[in-house]
C-alpha cells in the first residue's frame, strides 16, 4: 500500500456557471496536480461536492478522471454514507470500480452511531468488496468520532481495510493509531494545518485540500518532513499556515475553488447548499497569499 504515502489530493469537481461539470477545467486541474508531483488523487470526497452529484454525474466524472490520469497516479474514489445497505448496493453502480485503486469511506454522518455501530458498518462494507478501503474519520462533519480502538480492530480483522484518513485533529488519538497499527496499515492526515506535527509522530502523509492550488509547495513540505529536514518543512508550513484556515472560513470547497479561479484553473462555482465565499474573504485570501510570497500568475 505504499502508493498511499505522501500527498493525496481531495480534488474539487469544477463547475461552469450553470453548475454543469466543467470537464475542461477538470483536465486543467488534473494536469496541474500531476505536474506538481502529487502522489494520488481522491475523487468525489467532500471537497469534490459528491453529495450534490447524481449517479450519472458521479460515473461520468470518475470515468473522466481515470481516463485523463491514464495510470500516471493512483485514483481513490470517495464512497460513504449513513445507510449501510444502500452504500453496499451502490457499489454495483460504480461503472469504473475495477479501475480505482481504493475506496475512501467516511464514518456515517448525522446518525451518530456508537462504536459498535461504526465497526459493524465498516465490517459490512469490507465484506461486500475486495477493493482496498481507506477509512475516514472526520468528527467535525459526521458528528461522531471513530475511536482509535475501533479503527485498530477493523485494521486487524479485515485485510482490505488498508488505512485511515484521520481528521479528528487529536494528536493523542493519532499517536495511538500509529503506535498500535498493524504492519502496512496507513495513517494519513486529513488536516492540512496539522500535517507537519502529525508526520513527526509517524503519519504516512496527507489527503490535502490546499494542494489543489499549491501542489509543489505542499509536496515539498511533505518530502522535507519525511526526510527529517525540519527547517525546510517549517518554511513551507509557515508559508501556508495562514492560508489554510481561510479556505474553510465560509465553507469548503468554496475557499479552495476561489483560489483555483485566481490561478486560472477553473471557476469558483459551487452547488447548493454550499455558497460562494464573500468578496471580503476573497480579498483576504488574495492578500494573504501575496503576503506569503506566492504568485498567482
Automatic annotation (TrEMBL):
Which pathway, metabolic or otherwise, does it act in?
A: Amino-acid biosynthesis; L-lysine biosynthesis via DAP pathway; (S)-tetrahydrodipicolinate from L-aspartate: step 3/4
Give the principal location in a single coarse category: cytoplasm
Entry GO terms, CC? cytosol
Superkingdom per UniProt: Bacteria
Site feature Part of a proton relay during catalysis: at which residues? 46, 110
* Annotated localization: Cytoplasm
Output the SMART domains linked to this UniProt entry.
DHDPS
Record's keyword terms, sorted: Amino-acid biosynthesis, Cytoplasm, Diaminopimelate biosynthesis, Lyase, Lysine biosynthesis, Schiff base
Name the reaction it catalyses: L-aspartate 4-semialdehyde + pyruvate = (2S,4S)-4-hydroxy-2,3,4,5-tetrahydrodipicolinate + H2O + H(+)
This entry's Enzyme Commission designation comes to 4.3.3.7
Report residues binding pyruvate. Answer: 47, 207
According to its UniProt entry, one GO biological process term is:
lysine biosynthetic process via diaminopimelate
UniProt GO molecular function: 4-hydroxy-tetrahydrodipicolinate synthase activity
**What PROSITE patterns does the database record attribute to this sequence?**
DHDPS_2
The residues responsible for catalysis, as annotated, are 136, 165
Pfam families, alphabetically? DHDPS
Describe its partners and assembly state. Answer: Homotetramer; dimer of dimers.
Job description of the protein:
Catalyzes the condensation of (S)-aspartate-beta-semialdehyde [(S)-ASA] and pyruvate to 4-hydroxy-tetrahydrodipicolinate (HTPA).
Give the family from UniProt: Belongs to the DapA family.
- Protein name in the entry: 4-hydroxy-tetrahydrodipicolinate synthase
Q: Which organism is it from?
A: Salibacter halophilus
